[in-house]
């Protein structure tokens, strides 16, 4: 079942499906949030992550990259004790390490978004290899969903979904690449 089949009928998913999923984003906090949300979703339902989104936002300092990158051992322990978030040590450690990775990419490329743009377009398998070199706890599913949610890869919405037309109007990156790139 595709996300477009059930999300519009489920209040938990409606806003994300209609207003965020597949739309391009440039803001570093949004990019970092999507990465952290996708990492936290691994092995769980997207509904679980959306239910915990507000507490994740608070726990991870509003997804401010510099704040998370500076988390101390005490902050890490606070996260691991917080029942409002997903308390998986690999996911918590990945959030901190990935904030530091974003800082390195920012220093090299100017921003996280410029880093992504510099490597677009490419097939998903190549994206996976690239992001695994820079980020912790990412694999094919996480990378694919992260990039699809931000418009770097196609497939966030079915062409018959009413949101698809709005996504196209926002000109996601995948629209500017040959379709053969993603096959």
From TrEMBL:
This protein's UniProt keywords: Metal-binding, Zinc
Gene Ontology molecular-function annotations: DNA-3-methyladenine glycosylase activity; metal ion binding
Residues that bind Zn(2+): 4, 17
Record InterPro entries: Adenine_glyco, DNA-3mA_glycosylase, DNA_glycosylase
Gene Ontology terms describing biological process: base-excision repair
Protein name stated in the entry: DNA-3-methyladenine glycosylase I
Organism: Rhodovibrio salinarum
């Amino acid at each position: 079942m595709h996300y477009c089949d059930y999300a519009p009928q489920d209040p938990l998913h409606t806003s994300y499906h209609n207003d965020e999923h597949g739309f391009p984003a440039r803001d570093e906090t949004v990019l970092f949030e999507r990465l952290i949300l996708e990492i936290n979703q691994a092995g769980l339902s997207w509904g679980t992550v959306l239910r915990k989104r507000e507490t994740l936002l608070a726990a991870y300092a509003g997804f401010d990259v510099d704040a998370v990158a500076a988390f101390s051992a005490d902050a890490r322990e606070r996260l691991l004790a917080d029942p409002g978030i997903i308390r998986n040590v690999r996911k918590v450690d990945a959030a901190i390490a990935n904030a530091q990775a974003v800082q390195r990419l920012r220093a090299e490329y100017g921003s996280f978004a410029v880093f992504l743009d510099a490597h677009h377009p490419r097939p998903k398998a190549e994206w996976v290899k690239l992001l695994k070199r820079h980020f912790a706890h990412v694999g094919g599913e996480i990378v694919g969903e992260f990039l699809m949610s931000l418009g770097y890869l196609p497939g966030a919405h079915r062409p018959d979904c009413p949101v698809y037309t709005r996504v196209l109007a926002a000109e996601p990156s995948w629209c500017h690449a040959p379709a053969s790139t993603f096959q």
